[in-house]
Design a protein that fits this description.
The chain is of the alpha/beta class and 268 residues long. The protein is 28% helix and 26% strand. The chain contains nine helices and 14 strands. The strands form two sheets. The protein has a seven-stranded mixed beta sheet with strand order 6-5-4-3-2-1-14. Strands 7-8-9-10-11-12-13 form a seven-stranded mixed beta sheet. Strand 1 (3-11) and strand 2 (14-20) form a beta hairpin. The termini are close together. The model has no long low-confidence stretch (mean pLDDT 97).
């Protein structure tokens, strides 16, 4: 089964991902402006009306900005937990509230099918109202999305190990965060166990617990002020090399751009 993947944006100011087969297309998060989403779809000759659902990881603004518009103006079903739906309902950035018919409630680790996709959401530690990652299988290909996660739990580790294609947070460089301009309370929140994963923390974990079926690793949710794509890549490359995992041979590692779309990756 052919699967296509594209990041529309991946960073601290907005996140949105596209995953599709020949028959089913979904978005994971929609935390960028609706005009931007429509422009990317037009430029890439994709059909926004062909999207069959939006999966939401949590209720922070950089993940839900366009969710209300997609639900109400385009009639898209929005899938997430009851708690995240409730958080979105009270969010300042949801200028269009979802009507009940657009709200689809899912439970953690209870799988459901949406077209060609077999989808499971699972708990991740972060500081939204509720927070989930997604494990999505199409045929023999498994994608896991862990976009905002403070640390690796046994539950998260289980889904990471299932992944052929992994979209994983590399939010900040430890030194850049420590020496940067953020107030101390924000630094502590970011580096906390319910905040975000650093380049080093993510790279160290994956190098020592490398999923045997992993083919692609995309580094997502990079900070504007506390990270650089090249730095994130080099941190992962070095950690992997120390465990005899060669980037470019054993696995592809790709930092996703913060505010512009990636290429369309096509897997046959």
């Amino acid at each position: 089964m052919k699967v296509q993947f594209m990041s529309l944006a991946s960073g601290s100011s907005g996140n949105c991902y596209y995953l599709a087969t020949d028959h089913t297309a979904i978005l994971i998060d929609a935390g960028i402006g609706i005009r931007t989403i429509k422009k990317v779809f037009k430029d890439r000759m994709l059909n926004l009306e062909g999207i069959q659902g939006v999966l939401v990881t949590h209720d922070h603004a950089d993940h839900i900005k366009a969710v209300g518009h997609l639900g109400e103006r385009h009639g898209l079903p929005v899938y997430t937990t009851h708690e995240i739906h409730e958080g979105m309902r009270h969010s300042y950035c949801m200028t269009e509230r979802l009507s009940p018919e657009r709200m689809h409630f899912i439970r953690k680790e209870e799988s459901f099918t949406l077209g060609d996709f077999h989808i499971t959401c699972f708990e991740v530690p972060h500081d939204g109202t509720d927070n989930v990652g997604y494990c999505i299988t199409a045929g023999d290909k498994t994608f896991s999305f862990l976009t905002d996660i403070g640390h690796i739990t046994p539950t998260a580790a289980r889904y990471i190990q299932q992944s052929n294609y992994l979209i994983m947070e590399a939010n900040y460089d430890d030194t850049m965060l420590k020496m940067g301009p953020y107030p101390q309370h924000l630094k502590e929140r970011i580096a906390g166990s319910n905040g975000h994963m650093s380049n080093h923390e993510m790279a160290d974990y994956l190098s020592k617990h490398f999923p045997k079926g992993l083919k692609y690793l995309w580094l997502c949710h990079l900070s504007k002020d506390n990270n650089h794509p090249e730095l994130a890549f080099k941190t992962v490359e070095l950690a992997f090399r120390q465990e005899n995992i060669l980037v470019g041979k054993d696995v592809e590692v790709i930092p996703l751009r913060r505010t512009s779309p990636s290429e369309m990756y096509v897997f046959e």
